[in-house]
Enoyl-CoA hydratase 1
Amino acid sequence: MPAGLLLFLRLKAVLQKCLPALLCRGLYSGLRVILQPMSSSAASSASPYNYESLKVSQARDHVLHVELNRPDKRNAMNRAFWREMVECFHKITDDSDCRAVVVSGAGKAFTSGIDLMDMATMLQPQGDDAARLAWNLRKTVVEFQETFTVIEKCPKPVIVAVHGACIGGGVDLISACDIRYCTEDAVFQVKEVDIGLAADVGTLQRLPKIIGNRSLVCELAFTARKMMSDEAKSCGLVSRVFPDKGAMLESAFDLASDIATKSPVAVQGTKINLIYSRDHSVAEGLNYIATWNMGMLQTQDIVQSAQASFEKKTPKDITYSKL
Ligand SMILES: *[C@@H]1O[C@H](CO)[C@@H](O)[C@H](O)[C@H]1NC(C)=O
């Protein structure tokens, strides 16, 4: 091959490789100049997580702590809460710095459930006839369901730490979480029948998948009786019980922190596939993960993890790229 042609081809290869990066960098710095005033003003508010009913803080590296934060109302779920949970977990889903979440309640109890004042407005839907009323009411219920479904849709593991009362909507909330811890004084109550309705934001759908004891689930849901921490542990609703809230939170943060050291490609793929498998047959689940992993097996995280293990290191010693 003539030397000139060879040189041309090489140059072309080099350019093809570098040009997009150079262009992007140029574009990016250009954009940065344009966006500067905007982004700096946005960054001036300390945390992007600012809510009325929730308090979000960074507990450990890559671990966010979401607290139900209406302690004087026993964290009753008001309008702001139903909306803000969705906003908060959407943000967490997109936050590549966050790899695990701990949810707990501020004050004396985890939550007393739905704020009954809100129920009143909810049960007065608008509509010119029965069909339109029903239509609008359905829309409201679906919106409320989303408040807890976002926890499940968020690919980062969510650990919930329950102390004191966990009533009504509280059980709906925790059944959408991945891991449940509680204190010895925790009390769980599927309270909805006592206020005249069938639970409609997740308990009846998710609890039977968590507690493999159908008779017990029915008993709890039909009677609204209290379930104490020892029974919650023995039936598998919670995986650990602690003497007090401090010890529980410390362990929950340790657990979240441990999860956060691992490959986010591995952890988040695991959550998504565990939930998929819960809702599908074994054959469908295997099919789904085969397709999932035809992309995800190509991650650099596997190379890094394998190399670390040859060098007798653990995931803790590796810095995985953000996801
Ligand atoms: C179901 O729950 C009840 C009440 O906690 C318990 O007594 C019973 O042994 C459980 N059954 C099974 C099969 O786990």
Observations:
- The pocket of 2-acetamido-2-deoxy-beta-D-glucopyranose is lined by residues 213, 215-216, 231, 235 (CB under 6 Å).
- The two ends are 45 Å apart (CA to CA).
